[in-house]
Amino acid sequence: MVRELITNTVADFKSHYAELKADQSLSRVFVLFMAGTDPDTGDSWCPDCRNAEPHIEAAVKGLGDDVAFLAVDVGDRPGWKSPDCPFRHLDEAKVTGVPTLFEIKSGRELNGDDCQDGAKVAAFFA
């Protein structure tokens, strides 16, 4: 079963990223940057993230023991929209929108509308 981690801080992201990147037992490592939960609705504040979620969850379920998946919650809408949002200034990833999905070792990336396309998501994880 895939190793799944979730974080919502830059410090934890950097720690997990370094650990997963260095782990030789992992054949692949995926990272998803997604919007946080709206406390009023209990759902993501980002409609693109809500639409992408079922496709990404289905694909992740099919991954093996030698794969890791790190989900990064970028926070609430005002925090994410700020040009000072720390997730916009990472050395490890150039995140300009959510959802953003990338694979560490290959550098491949899937963004926005493409994350909402089940076939593209499945192909990305294949």
Automatic annotation (TrEMBL):
It comes from the Eukaryota. One of its GO terms (molecular function) is protein-disulfide reductase [NAD(P)H] activity. One of its GO terms (cellular component) is cytosol. Gene3D superfamilies: Glutaredoxin. It holds the Pfam family TXD17-like_Trx. Residues 19-125 form the Thioredoxin domain. Belongs to the thioredoxin family. PANTHER family: 42-9-9 PROTEIN-RELATED (PTHR12452), THIOREDOXIN DOMAIN-CONTAINING PROTEIN 17 (PTHR12452:SF0). This is Thioredoxin domain-containing protein 17. It comes from Macrostomum lignano.
